[in-house]
Specification:
Elements lengths: L1 H43 L10 H21 L8 H21 L2
């Protein structure tokens, strides 16, 4: 019975990972398509004395790119601050504390 439970947990974790990866690639596709569209529109609407190479041309790709980088770091377990391992360790730690408190009163 325990093996079945552990197998189900591994399966759920693998499915979650695949969903996270799919979500990242959808985010990446939206980033590329939308930013190409915005850059083309910006280039078409430039005035005669305006430069394409200005801060305003690239503010959306740069700021959205930071969010995309954060998404990539999260999906591929390159957590800068709080990793999933850290989360799991903290959860186990709190569960053990709760268990020891419950055992004191029994």
């Amino acid at each position: 019975m325990e093996d079945l439970f552990e197998e189900q947990q591994r399966l759920d974790k693998a499915r979650k990972k695949v969903e996270d990866i799919k979500g990242f690639y959808k985010h990446l596709a939206a980033y590329v398509l939308v930013n190409i569209f915005l850059l083309v529109i910006h280039a078409i609407n430039l005035g005669p004395d305006e430069s394409f190479w200005s801060w305003g041309s690239f503010i959306t790709p740069l700021s959205w790119g930071i969010g995309l980088l954060a998404h990539w770091l999260t999906v591929y377990n390159r957590h800068v601050f709080f990793s999933r391992d850290w989360e799991e360790r903290k959860i186990r730690e709190y569960m053990e504390k709760e268990k020891s408190r419950a055992n004191k009163w029994e």
